[in-house]
Amino acid sequence: MYGTEQVIPGTIIAGPELDPIVGYICVKNGIITEIGEEHTYSTNIIAPGFVNAHTHLGDSVCKDPPLGKASGFRVKRDLESLVKPPDGLKHRILRETSYKTLIEYIKKSLLDMIGTGTCAFADFREGGVLGVAALNKALEGLELHSLIFGRPAELQSPLEVVLAEVRRVLLHSDGLGMSGANDLDMELLQEIIACTRDRKKLFAIHAGEKNRSDIEKALSLEPDLLIHLTHATKKDLDEVAQTKVPVVVCPRSNFVTGVGMAPITEMLEAGIRVAAGTDNVMLNSVNMFAEMEFMSKVFSIEDRQVFKICTLNGSFVMGPDSTGSIEKGNKANLMILNGNSNNLAGIKDPVSGITKRARPDDILAVLHS
């Protein structure tokens, strides 16, 4: 509550190294004003909120695609059939979805994010100006920090028409998010990027998801953000690390589409700044607990690092105002969990416990600033 100081007791997952502290935090006007160490007998666990660093929220209108099921309408379980523009399953569905319905279902996913501990997200918003407008409309009245990467819808039109739409999209978004360097002529992409840079907006792009053939092209475009790099080689990773471009990995999505698993351990060893996202709502929920648990059990990564990837590392993508460690002076983007829930009771290490097994129903409250 603004204007009133809140005192929250419990085990605090504090600082950039996520060190557990038994004590309390004070929050006033959305800012952490004090962290104290004293025994409080509280079973609360106070943790940084999640950052879902890559979503496609328009997909919220289709949450149960027939992935190879026996039915009158079968969809191949492969990346291109599902999501490749302009005629992948999701793009056909989006063309058939009304603006009002799109807003309604995007809002449901935003509310699901809030309910599952996410404080900030970055979305690749297809559909041109209307797609961006739908997300902005759905966000009205919600306490979520957002980063919206729009995408022009008229990419097959003459250059002047494409660039005119790019300029309109950029007026209402934080930048552009493109599907991949192999999906468009490189000269057109370079024109689009020049337009984006002129307006001091961000440029993000998928790369290396199905194979590595577009990674070199993507890097040549000097993006602000890369998504996936599922098939990156060590040489690719070393080049990405030198550019200091953050990478967002989406392990559950890559598993569902069968493209393989991103070399997250190698990314971290190369010094790449890694965050995580849930990707297409059509394929996975926006629940970051599920993403974190999957990552912790599939990859040989220490639990604390997994937790960082899903929380604090989001600042690599969203900026420092979106999330941060629990420290005096930082914004209070927090989730408070019940350490005595039937699920969490008995855990010895709160970071590992949350990473490997926590669920949305363990949440007592979420604070957004």
Describe the 3D structure.
Its EC number is 3.5.4.26. Residues 45-355 form the Amidohydrolase-related domain. Pfam families: Amidohydro_1. This is Pyrimidine deaminase archaeal predicted. It comes from Methanosarcina lacustris Z-7289. The protein is α/β, with parallel strands linked by helices. Helix 8 (234-243) links the parallel strand 10 and strand 11. The protein has a nine-stranded parallel β-sheet. The chain has a six-stranded mixed β-sheet with strand order 3-2-1-4-14-15, with no helix packed on it. Helix 3 packs across helix 4, helix 11 (288-298) crosses helix 14 and helix 12 (303-310) crosses helix 14. The protein has 14 helices and 15 strands. The termini are close together. 35% of the residues lie in helices and 23% in strands. It has two domains: 6-49 and 323-367, Urease, subunit C, domain 1 (Roll); 50-318, Metal-dependent hydrolases (TIM Barrel, Alpha-Beta Barrel), CATH 3.20.20.140.
Q: What topology emerges from the helices and strands here?
A:
Elements: E1 6-14, E2 19-28, E3 31-37, E4 44-48, E5 50-56, H1 79-83, H2 89-96, H3 99-115, E6 118-125, H4 128-139, E7 145-150, H5 159-171, E8 175-178, H6 186-198, E9 202-207, H7 215-220, E10 225-228, H8 234-243, E11 247-249, H9 251-257, H10 264-270, E12 274-276, E13 279-280, H11 288-298, H12 303-310, H13 315-318, E14 334-338, H14 350-357, E15 363-367
Parallel strand pairs: 1-4, 5-6, 5-13, 6-7, 7-8, 8-9, 9-10, 10-11, 11-12
Antiparallel strand pairs: 1-2, 2-3, 4-14, 14-15
